[in-house]
Automatic annotation (TrEMBL):
It comes from the Eukaryota. This is Uncharacterized protein.
Length: 39
């Protein structure tokens, strides 16, 4: 049971990390796009 909980916690952490990096990438590409259009 404890092993199962650890596995789920690990997967949730990985998922959160993945989502965070996707959001950061989206923000960066959007800002870059806006900056390119500004010039």
């Amino acid at each position: 049971m404890n092993m199962f909980k650890i596995m789920i916690d690990t997967q949730l952490t990985l998922l959160k990390t993945l989502i965070d990096s996707l959001i950061n990438w989206k923000i960066r590409s959007t800002l870059f796009h806006l900056k390119s259009e500004g010039n």
